[in-house]
Write a structure and sequence with these properties.
Length: about 300
Amino acid sequence: MSLASLLPYDHAYAGGYPGIGSQPLPTDADALDYLSRMATADGAGVETGVAVAVDAFFRDTKAAGVFDALKGCCILAGARTLAGALVPVVGDAPTNVADGFVEGDYSRTAGLTGDGTSYLDSGRAGDADPLNDKHIAAYVASGITIANARVLGAGQGAGGGNTEIYRDSSGNMFCRVHCTTGITIASAGNATGFTGASRASSSSFTFRINDSDTTQSHTSNVFPANPLTIFAGNSSGTVTQFSDATLAFYSIGTSLSLEDLDTAVSNLITRLKFALLVGENPSGLDPDTIDYIVRGYEAGGTLE
């Protein structure tokens, strides 16, 4: 485990010092702003390894052209505390409501786990984005076991437009973007990892799960005006259908390439795990190599 990677990224010796070694530091201006806000919420500095993982996410999303589509977004992992995890990448900070999440619901490597009573109010209204220019996404570290529970969503109730990701009574994962209640949409089992949907036209939207995109030909309907909630659904202002999923990321915003966002988010999560489990700086390492090492650590192995 490297001492250098554990130093706060803004420590005087973080970039290099005799006996400690040298290492890359975060450089993206937006990442530095986010990391500063996270450190303030945590009440402690962000380790360089974690900061570099976050910096790579900002650079990757910008290079892929999807960063500007993130209008309400949180990385629900990596931070030292729950307060730090609720610092938004962009947009408003989510409000911790109902019984409220507590520190025991949060894991730095896995994310935030739903307790069946609490939810996050994203603060982003369902109609904040154009009817035919919308995405929702989440990284599910551990799947839902409760039937008819929502990962995130908002709706107008019967006959109205719905935007949500959820698990139905048969155990399948579903989603829809600005579609009428009752439309049959894509299913892919209770999968983990990145899942999301994006609508860029009035006639269809794209749903991504298990590293695969599927286009659904469903005409857009009115969008919900109430805020999208995380770990529950928001039907015409009534929050119901709480989930027990563990989420490490969510985003809401305008349409984008789900594949590109998937790559950036999935690499972010494995880099964060590498920094926290292995204790090394993930900068410059191949994502597949990082993933392989992380899976070894999660199985109880080490590099020694």
